[in-house]
Amino acid sequence: MECVTGKVQQGDTTIADDLEVWLAKSGDGETDWNGSFELPPGAHVDTGGTYSLALEDGRAGSITITNVGADDAQPHQVGFRGASALS
Fold it and tell me: What is the pLDDT of residues 29-44, one digit of tens each?
């Protein structure tokens, strides 16, 4: 698993930036990657929603949110899977 800095967007709106994003390759296909990040207080994503992930190293791709931590603690842990190639 690799840790990179990035941001999550929906359209032109930045949901959260300067995130530590954990990425893992889960197979040989273009969309076979997944990961997680901590959603900062005040930010919101929907389980099943599709968002853009842009990384500081220049890579970008679409993600689908698979789960959002539901406890009262902030920040929430968010899991996602690749919905496009990460390039």
Answer: 889 999 999 999 889 9
